[in-house]
Design brief:
Elements (H helix, E strand, L loop, with lengths): L1 H23 L8 H24 L1 H16 L5 E3 L2 E3 L1 H22 L9 H11 L1
Antiparallel strand pairs: 1-2
Helix pairs in contact: 1-2, 1-4, 2-3, 2-4, 3-4
Length: 130
């Protein structure tokens, strides 16, 4: 159930972030229009990857956000919803929240996983206890 919810949330947020980046991207005056379009396309592709990964695997999505945010910021995409400014990172943070919530629901519904103790683990625990 939550896998389907993850795919649906990832798809919806990916469409939102693509619309935000491509319609709200900065169009440079001093550079050729192709440069601004190329920056917007690259930023949109990275934003899609960040959003989908944030919903599917929140920790990996957070790491990709930290690594790829400077590249996404090159497009200078923004939109205003009333007095609120919406950036691509806003949508990615929303995707992280959705992914973390679905992960929590999924882990609460599943029985706890138990692993047998290994010799190395027991030895390390005993050595640290001493």
């Amino acid at each position: 159930m939550t896998t389907t919810a993850r795919w649906i949330a990832g798809g919806v947020l990916a469409v939102v972030v693509v619309a935000l980046v491509l319609t709200g991207a900065y169009r440079p005056v001093e550079a050729p229009p192709a440069v601004g379009l190329a920056a917007a396309v690259v930023a949109a592709a990275l934003a899609i990857a960040m959003v989908v990964l944030a919903v599917m695997r929140p920790w990996s999505g957070l790491l990709l956000l930290a690594a790829a945010l400077p590249v996404v910021n090159v497009a200078r995409a923004q939109a205003s919803v009333g007095p609120v400014q919406v950036l691509p990172v806003t949508v990615v943070i929303a995707a992280l929240a959705v992914g973390a919530t679905l992960e929590r629901i999924e882990s609460a519904a599943a029985p706890p996983r138990t692993r047998p103790a290994t010799v190395i683990g027991v030895t390390l625990a005993a050595a640290l206890a001493v």
